[in-house]
Specification:
The chain has six helices and ten strands. With about 240 residues, the protein is an alpha/beta fold.
Length: about 240
């Protein structure tokens, strides 16, 4: 915050009724740091009546551990945690306990299609290059190709180095076009496999095919919080 000069952004120098943001990489450096300071600042806003909406690709437990579990009181009902890349929405009851407000559940057919797309994408990459990738199957409404399994747990603040190393690996092992080519390839495979509304996303390490993405979280927020509380777009701040 010391590096932020609000005078350079006059459009931000006003009260907002909803503040929404990504968690790791935006609110905190990564999921391992002590988030008590930022949580304290967010709790001050909650007590003022501001809606705080955390949007994340990770699961609820990770956000709850760093953020929401540290807050108790009636004002906690003003915060929402939208997780699993658009697939889940959590709020909190009068006792500060988490409440699942919505979850997108893949059908058996959709799960089969997700697996098929991931398997075909892995095969295509490995058959046309010397790149070996792993598949992560156990994610809600999505499958993930791990493009660089030799780097097991990169932090969000290492994203520039991760991008450099992943692109270098793909190019050096014969997959010309790198992440961008793999991204398009997975999208094409999804369409030809019958998963016409697939959401293709990437955090650089992983290439994901899913049924939802963070745009679904934004849509949920706009419908369930903004519209139902008559909050206009001008009173909403989205970051990250």
């Amino acid at each position: 915050m010391e590096n932020c000069n609000i005078d350079q952004y006059p459009q931000l120098n006003k009260p907002f009724k909803i503040i929404a943001f990504d968690w790791d990489g935006t609110a905190v450096v990564n999921r391992k740091v002590d988030a008590s300071y930022v949580t304290g600042k967010l709790e001050e806003l909650l007590k003022l009546g501001v809606y705080i909406v955390v949007i994340s690709g990770t699961n609820f437990g990770n956000i709850d551990r760093q953020y929401s579990s540290l807050i108790t009181g009636k004002h906690k009902q003003k915060t929402y945690v939208l997780t699993n890349r658009g697939s889940e929405a959590y709020g909190f009851d009068e006792n500060s306990n988490p409440v699942l407000l919505g979850r997108r559940e893949a059908t058996e057919e959709e799960n089969e299609l997700l697996t098929r797309v991931a398997d075909r994408s892995k095969k295509e990459i490995e058959n046309t290059s010397k790149v070996n990738v792993n598949i992560v199957y156990n994610r809600l409404n999505r499958r993930k190709l791990d493009l660089i399994p030799e780097w097991p747990d990169p932090q969000k603040n290492e994203i520039d180095k991760l991008l450099e190393e992943t692109q270098k690996k793909l190019e050096n092992k014969g997959f010309a076009g790198g992440i961008q080519k793999a991204f398009k390839m997975m999208g094409d495979i999804a369409k030809t496999s019958g998963l016409t509304k697939a959401k293709i996303t990437s955090d650089v390490k992983h290439l994901e095919v899913g049924l939802t993405d963070k745009a679904d979280s934004i849509n949920w927020m706009m419908e369930e919080i903004a519209r139902k509380n008559s909050i206009s777009n001008e009173d909403i701040l989205i970051g990250g």
